[in-house]
Structure formats: structure tokens, C-alpha cells
Amino acid sequence: MSEEKKDLKKCSGKKNIMFAYGFIQLGSSFVSAIALAAIAVGFCSVKKESKLFNKCVSEIVEDVGTYSEAVRYCNGGN
Questions:
Q1: Taking burial as the number of CB atoms within 10 A of a residue's CB, which of 22, 41, 63, 70 is the most buried?
Q2: Range of 55's domain?
């Protein structure tokens, strides 16, 4: 009878450790999901900026005629 109680106490400690491990795994998965969502939102702004840059280059190419001058102008050059 006393051996069974000792086995139960040993098992309950392992159960708590496994619960903590599962909770930590779930928390880290949640943090990873949030980080991936933040990266995806960042790509949306890069896409928008890229469209504006391409539009600038195409407008300047019509006026100046060379792509190198247009890219330099759109990057902030004079």
C-alpha cells in the first residue's frame, strides 16, 4: 500500500512537468504565429512602396529616356 502512494507521488510530479512543457510549447507556437503575421504585414508595405517606385521610374523614363537616370532620380538623386 505504501509503495502505491510513492508511485502516485512520483507520477504526479511528472504530470506537472508534462503540463508545463505543453503550456510552454503552446505559448511558443502562439508567439511564432504573431511574429509571422507581423512579417506578412511588413511585406504589404514593401509591395506598396515597390509599386510607387516602379510608377516613378516609368514616368521619369518617359521624360528623360534612360532607365539609369530615372532610377537615380527616384532614389533621391538630382
A1: 70
A2: 2-74
